[in-house]
């Protein structure tokens, strides 16, 4: 999976980018405010003026310029004025530049705020030779703080804020990840303890990331497992019930054979026992086939299957049985229809439907096998008899394993054939339905998707 297409990846990335941006903006602002309002060392303006005078008298204009550069490095723009003229260049913005002559001519020391966050000082100082100078200093703070101290405070504030914000955002992200993981873990533990109804229960939630998809997949898996286990339990109960009668009959027949007075009488009981054993064998085989299909494991690879050929072959195999019951088979399979699937499974499904139609069809009538395209994507295979049909209340239960309708009370069978048909059709992505025909009889229709090659 490409991580760039992961919503969880983008959530983490955007979260950390947001944290860094907030640290950069808010941290710088807070550090500046901390420097301005939390430092208690005030600037000594007279001492600053004396330092400027000493630098000028000692080194002249180059000495004063070096002192100006040092003060500028510490956040103070300052220089000496003599007779209203600066002894070294000084950067002043418009209004201060315009009002400076009046401030210098006031004849006394000044400390003012021309605008918020800006301090302007005018401080008179006398030289050793009796000359008068005036210090003009501009600072963003009324406190003295060395450059390395400023950098240390700024770094400390930004580091502390970064740890706080990254920790908060990391906690939020970890919480958003840990909650669904904990819910998945709890549901898994409940399932492991035997509670097959356990679900994460996030369907319909606002989450759309990979964890929500995983929770949905878990719920779908849990539903599938619960359905399979419930089906297996039901089939096992039905099988145990169905096996009870033939086993009881077999035990009774063998008891009668043991008490027979002659070999001829015993041979009759043994023939009955063989019939019961054959019935048990068929029952076991059908149950194994149904369980295999319910597990979704056909056991063979899919291939292109010609449904028309399968239908004609099934009719050919059932000809003798149909003749014995005086039933005619009418095959209408002219449409070309190929599906993708397993030929043996589809053959078994058709045989089961056709066998039922022949078994319950009225002698002297016909069984129709029809193959028609529904549209460019699907095909329908219909087997219709002219027998007694099925009561409407029983139609929905025809495909349940071991269900035998009221019309099948006197017919031989196990009640598994149509259950196998339904599962074969579902494995192939189709559907099956049964309906009573208007003029009598039952029609069973298998609808299957056409193979890709057959759509053209």
From TrEMBL:
This is histidine kinase. InterPro entries: HAMP_dom, HATPase_C_sf, HATPase_dom, His_kinase_dom, HisK_dim/P_dom, HisK_dim/P_sf, Sig_transdc_His_kin-like_C, TCS_sensor_his_kinase. It is found in: Membrane. The keyword Transferase applies. The chain crosses the membrane at residues 12-31, 153-174. The keyword Signal does not apply. Its EC number is 2.7.13.3. It catalyses: ATP + protein L-histidine = ADP + protein N-phospho-L-histidine. Residues 175-230 form the HAMP domain. It is a multi-pass membrane protein. PROSITE patterns: HAMP, HIS_KIN. Keywords: Kinase, Membrane, Phosphoprotein, Transferase, Transmembrane, Transmembrane helix, Two-component regulatory system. Residues 238-452 form the Histidine kinase domain. Gene3D superfamilies: 1.10.287.130, 6.10.340.10, Histidine kinase-like ATPase, C-terminal domain (3.30.565.10). It comes from the Bacteria. One of its GO terms (molecular function) is kinase activity.
């Amino acid at each position: 999976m490409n991580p760039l297409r992961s919503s969880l990846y983008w959530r983490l990335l955007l979260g950390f980018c947001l944290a860094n941006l907030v640290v950069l903006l808010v941290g710088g602002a807070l550090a500046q405010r901390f420097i301005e309002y939390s430092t208690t060392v005030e600037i000594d303006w007279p001492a600053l003026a004396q330092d400027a005078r000493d630098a000028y008298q000692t080194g002249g204009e180059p000495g004063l310029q070096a002192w100006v550069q040092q003060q500028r490095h510490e956040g103070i723009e300052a220089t000496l004025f003599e007779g209203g003229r600066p002894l070294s260049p000084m950067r002043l913005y418009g209004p201060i530049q315009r009002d400076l002559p009046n401030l210098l001519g006031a004849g006394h020391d000044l400390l003012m705020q021309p605008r918020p966050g800006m301090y302007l000082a005018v401080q008179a100082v006398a030289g050793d030779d009796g000359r008068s100078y005036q210090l003009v200093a501009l600072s963003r703070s009324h406190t003295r703080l060395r450059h390395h101290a400023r950098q240390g405070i700024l770094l400390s504030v930004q580091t502390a804020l970064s740890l706080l914000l990254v920790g908060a955002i990391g906690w939020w992200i970890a919480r958003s990840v840990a909650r669904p993981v904990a819910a998945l873990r709890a549901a898994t533990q409940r399932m492991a303890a035997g509670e097959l109804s356990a679900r994460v229960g996030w369907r319909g939630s606002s989450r759309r990331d990979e964890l929500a998809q995983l929770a949905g997949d878990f719920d779908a898996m849990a539903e599938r497992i619960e359905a399979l286990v419930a089906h297996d339990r039901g089939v096992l109960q039905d099988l145990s019930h169905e096996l009870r009668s033939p086993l009881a009959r077999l035990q009774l027949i063998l008891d009668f054979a043991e008490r027979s007075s002659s070999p001829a009488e015993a041979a009759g009981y043994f023939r009955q026992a063989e019939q019961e054993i054959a019935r048990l064998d068929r029952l076991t085989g059908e149950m194994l086939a149904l369980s295999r299909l319910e597990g979704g494991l056909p056991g063979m690879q899919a291939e292109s299957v010609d449904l028309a050929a399968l239908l004609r072959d099934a009719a050919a195999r059932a000809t003798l049985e149909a003749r014995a019951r005086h039933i005619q088979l009418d095959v209408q399979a002219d449409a070309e229809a190929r599906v993708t699937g397993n030929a043996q499974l589809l053959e078994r499904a058709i045989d089961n439907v056709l066998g039922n139609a022949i078994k319950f069809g009225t002698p002297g009538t016909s069984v129709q096998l029809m193959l028609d395209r529904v549209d460019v994507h699907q095909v329908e295979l219909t087997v219709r008899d002219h027998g007694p049909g099925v009561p409407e209340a029983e139609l929905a239960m025809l495909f349940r394993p071991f269900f035998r309708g009221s019309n099948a009370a006197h017919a031989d069978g196990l009640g598994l054939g149509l259950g196998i048909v339904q599962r074969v059709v579902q494995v192939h992505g189709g559907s099956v339905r049964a309906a009573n025909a208007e003029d009598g009889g039952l029609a069973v229709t298998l609808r299957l998707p056409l193979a890709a090659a057959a759509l053209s």
